[in-house]
Amino acid sequence: MIKTGIIGWVIIGAIAGWIASMITGNNRKMGAGKNILAGVAGGILGGITMNLIGGRGITGFNLWSLFVATIGAVIVLLIVNAFKKKAH
């Protein structure tokens, strides 16, 4: 297992954010920076959520961590979309 450092968080965040943007339909509205932010925030939220329900959060630079970050990023983007719709 490889430990996740700053570069690892950016890579996993970018991939997770991109996947989440495809799932939520934000893919045409987001650039690389927003994908990374959504993915890193999703990694934190997904890790906390998984720990709360008794699972394992981010475990390193691996597929499980990508899955957890993607689930968290989907949640983050759904929340952002809900607030954007209320603002319009």
For this entry, what is the oligomeric state of its chains?
Answer: single chain
Nearest-integer average pLDDT:
86
Count of all domains: 1
> Secondary-structure element order, as H and E?
HHH
Poorly predicted segments: none
Total helix count?
A: 3
Q: Could you describe the largest sheet, including whether it forms a barrel? A: none
Cα radius of gyration in angstroms: 13 Å
Shape: globular
Strand content is under 5%
Total number of beta strands: 0
Q: Which class do the helix and strand fractions yield?
A: mainly alpha
Distance between the termini: 45 Å
Quick description:
The protein has about 90 residues and is mainly alpha-helical. The chain has helices at about 5-25, 30-50, 65-85.
Structure description:
The protein has one domain. The chain is an all-alpha fold and about 90 residues long. Helix content is about 75%, strand content about 0%. Helix 1 (about 5-25) packs across helix 2 (about 30-50) and helix 2 (about 30-50) packs across helix 3. The chain is globular.
Topology:
Blueprint (H helix, E strand, L loop, with lengths): L5 H19 L7 H21 L10 H25 L1
What key phrases describe this protein's structure?
88 residues, mainly alpha, 0% strand
